Amino acid sequence: MISDPAIVVSDLSVEYPARGASPSCVALRGVSFRLEAGRSIGVLGETGSGKSTLASVLAGRGIPLRSGEPGPRISGGEATVLGHSLRHARKRDLAEVTFHVGYLPQEAAATLEPTLSVQDNISLPIVERDHHYSRRAAGERAALMLDTVHLPLSVLAKYPYELSAGQRQRVALAKALVLGPQILVVDEPTAGIDATVRDAVIDLLAQLRGHEGFSAVIVSHDLAVLRRATDVSLVLQGGRPVGYGPIEDVLADPAHPFVRGLADALKPPQRRTERRPQRAG
């Protein structure tokens, strides 16, 4: 039995409409790819290349339902997530997408509610969808998610300010996973955390990749993340796709000048060999 693709993006263009004195801004143009269920795609590119816009659109976050509302608008092409069209999405469609797609935004650790405990932060998406949901059951779910991201249960009663940056990042990831999503969209998951925790986050993303039917979109400039946690990668420059395929293949045979520069920048520095002076003989 062949399952439907998790995401299909066809010639997608996204713009931010003009607001006040600010003109409209095209963030993405002509992006296409197909992500099968159980696969993961990495997205990389320079600042302002449209990576975060693509992530938020595919996660169904911030898409305006009516003309005049702020947020990224699909101006061309199409993006379909779990069978739901995002270009012509209705409120019901977006509710389905946001339920089945977990989202870890950039600097996610800073989005945790400072007045809520870790347990309440993680279970917040459950409570927001069902105000009558059992608090005990929500707490048990939060504990399970905390274990999933490899944090001790003693953290449940703490508040975000009592945690390290790496711990807060993993709590935010637990929150993104609490509804049991089919797709996880993460934006720079290893930014701003120390090397030890970075490796733990990469390990976790690699483990999630192994779960049957679980798909992910991972925006990252971290080559280790792309190598270990993705199947293919999409390179963006100025909102346009300039490279696509397994990350090693893309960097080994760059067809675009930007990708060539990226490949050169990511090459390990060559060790210099010093020539010993010859003795006079």
Observed structural traits:
281 residues; alpha/beta; six-stranded mixed sheet; four-stranded antiparallel sheet; 9 helices; globular
Describe the structure.
The protein is of the alpha/beta class and 281 residues long. It is built from 9 helices and 10 strands. Helix 6 (195-209) links the parallel strand 7 and strand 8. It is globular and about 50 Å long.
Biggest sheet features: 6 strands, mixed
> Which percent range describes the beta-strand content?
15-25%
Number of separate helices: 9
Count the E strands.
Answer: 10
Structural class: alpha/beta
The outline comes out as globular
Question: If you average the pLDDT, what whole number results?
Answer: 89
Task: Please tell me how large the radius of gyration is.
Answer: 21 Å
Task: Give the helix level as a range of percent.
Answer: 25-40%
**Uncertain regions: pLDDT < 50 for 5+ in a row?**
none
Distance between the termini: 79 Å
With strands numbered from the N-terminus, the spatial order across the biggest sheet is 6-7-8-3-9-10
- What's the helix-strand series? EEEHEEHEHHHEHEHEEHH
